[in-house]
Input
Amino acid sequence: MTDTSTAPGQGFLSIRGLTKRYAGFTAVDNLDLEVPKGELVAFLGPSGCGKTTSLRMIAGLVPATSGRIVVGGQDLTEVATHRRDMGLVFQSYALFPHMSVAKNVAFGLEMRKVPKDEIAKRVKEAIALVHLTGKEEHRPAQLSGGQQQRVALARALVIRPSILLFDEPLSNLDAKLRDEMRNEIRDIQRRLGITAIFVTHDQSEALTMCDKVVVMNQGRLEQLGTPVDLYERPKTAFVASFVGRTNRLKAVATDGFADFGGQRFAAPGDLSGPVEVMVRPHRIALAPTGGEGVAGTIMRATFAGDILQYDIDVAGQTVSVELATRGGETVLAPGTTVALSWRPQDVFVYGAAA
Amino acid sequence: MDERPVSPALKLLAFLMFAFLLAPLIVVVPISFSGDSYMMFPPSSWSVKWYPAIFLDGKMTAAFWTSLLLACAVTVLCLVIALPAAFALVRLRPRGAEALSSLFTAPLLLPTIVLGLAILIVFARYGLLATFPGLVAAHLVVTLPYALRVLATALSTLPIAVEEAASTLGASPFTVFRRITLPMMKSGLIGTTALCFLVSFDEVVLSLFMTGPRIQTLPVAMYHHVEQQADPLVAALSVLLVVLTLLVVLVVDRTSGLAKTFVK
Ligand SMILES: Nc1ncnc2c1ncn2[C@@H]1O[C@H](COP(=O)(O)OP(=O)(O)OP(=O)(O)O)[C@@H](O)[C@H]1O
Ligand SMILES: [Mg+2]
Output
């Protein structure tokens, strides 16, 4: 599972060079992406990085400045939204306030001129699928946020769209409901084999739900990969720090090696000059001084139940270390000197941002 | 609207304003039940004869039907013109949309008498004076700005995502407008209808310029009636008109909530 890139044309949904420019500002910059049939792909990135804009271009709600959107071999770039056969679940739900739950769900089927008795059957199924049986005649305003969200989901699912697009659909829910809905969405998507894109700025949502993750930053695709790829082999400093937590340490590279606290790390390519060294807090081992590794002094110790967290001063920089507790360990007092060590594959070195 | 505690001072202010608004009724209602043959307050005797007298007065009934027909025609035309105009201004946002909507609402700033004079001069040339189409056109000049304002506000406060959701579900732009946009604008549409109807039905100044012996609206007929004879018939008619207005307002309130329609 190392090579996750797909050649152009191999995906069911194929996005090529998709770009959106507003006056003097590029919201989405040359996005290339292939999504195989039945996969759930996350768009992950900080606020304003262009996730919603990308999704809206795919749905046809915003015209692309350039680039192509192809679904199942058919170029949809110039096709109007209502002919694209895509389901979109809005962050704001966007339910029809003047229609009942059942009418909301039936709307897409009516537009497709599905016979009446079949509409009734499919609406019933869809409402059952999202556990809203009994609420058919309620108006959206009479439902809780989570229930409205599920109506939005049922409304998009019932038309069996070729592609399902989600724009941060869970961000308005409380943590418990969010977990439930995550599992439900994932189940339904797998069971029906729907190709889907899921926009989120919550990295744990992206990692836990999706087959692949697209990390976006400032309109550009930073990395596309499986959750494991992104976490274990982040290609850029941005990905390393955005996906999971990490220590960002300053170091200087010479002759392809970075020097940090007296240890040398292979720097990729022939980086030289200032670099950033990244190690995840829980991938660092501590040993009493004298052992192998980088020497440091404990500044602060925090016991948080599951983990024991240390802030350690290493040559003037603070390194955060997390140890899983097993019971019986002694909490090292501030001032204690220790040796820090890590496996070579847990260290990433990137050129420092200018 | 949410319930908020109201201070006594605010209650007093509201009471005074209502008293001010309703003061004319305190005079008009008793006079309408007067037994005298001329307007006097307080009346020296009582009767209900002026109410049936309205319906026996041919001029008044003819003017009433003219005004009713006129208000209906103006209202329908107003909606037919203002709805697409508001949609174009708010949704298609052509170059200079701001300037255009200021221009369209400008007639509200002019004194009606100035408008009336201008319309008189122009319409006289085309033989539109004292004709039904002429009256419709003149009333549209004052009702259209209101209609455009209310409908544009109603449109611009709609969440656009709801319409987008409909289009992703396969609805063509026209279907989106018919099945989603229009129903969501319901209160704005009812408000516009009521407003246009009442403004046209009540209009005096423009109508004075535009009417003649051939055609008369109810307010103008009442005006002339008072000029000629000061009997309490007009007071009785006024009471009926107040009741009619209240009915319209009540219908609006029941169907969409008055506050929701006019207070955004
Ligand atoms: N109509 C527009 N005109 C100009 N700039 C726009 C327009 N729409 C979006 N942008 C800009 O494009 C960028 C990307 O916006 P977008 O909504 O796609 O971000 P996002 O990744 O979805 O962010 P969030 O997580 O906050 O929803 C933003 O910087 C935004 O200001
Ligand atoms: Mg967004």
In short: Chain A has two domains: 13-237, 246-351. The helical segments of chain A are 51-59, 101-111, 116-129, 145-157, 175-192, 203-209, 227-232, 237-242.
